[in-house]
Task: inverse folding
């Protein structure tokens, strides 16, 4: 069981650049200690041979077929642009 103390919480807050009120430190000590205990408990589980999962449910995305559904209309679309070159829109330089 890992038990943090007041100085540990103050060091963590300093490193994280967080301001912590003095009266809140005991609650942070308890909560952070509980989190570390849970991590220790999870670390003690034998997970050898268990395949990592991205999601707990065996779900898959419904994907559409990857096919072209639009016609190439670049010339018509670029006809209304102020300036184009080699199929690209030309814009004024905004950064020096």
Result:
């Amino acid at each position: 069981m890992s038990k943090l103390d007041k100085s540990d919480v103050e060091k963590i807050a300093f490193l994280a650049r967080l301001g912590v009120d003095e009266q809140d430190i005991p609650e942070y000590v308890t909560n952070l200690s509980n989190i570390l205990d849970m991590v220790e408990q999870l670390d003690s589980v034998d997970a050898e041979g268990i395949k990592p999962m991205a999601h707990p449910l065996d779900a898959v995305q419904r994907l559409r077929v990857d096919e072209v559904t639009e016609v190439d209309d670049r010339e018509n679309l670029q006809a209304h642009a102020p300036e184009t070159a080699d199929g690209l829109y030309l814009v004024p330089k905004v950064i020096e």
Q: What stands out?
A: The beta strands are 84-85, 88-89.
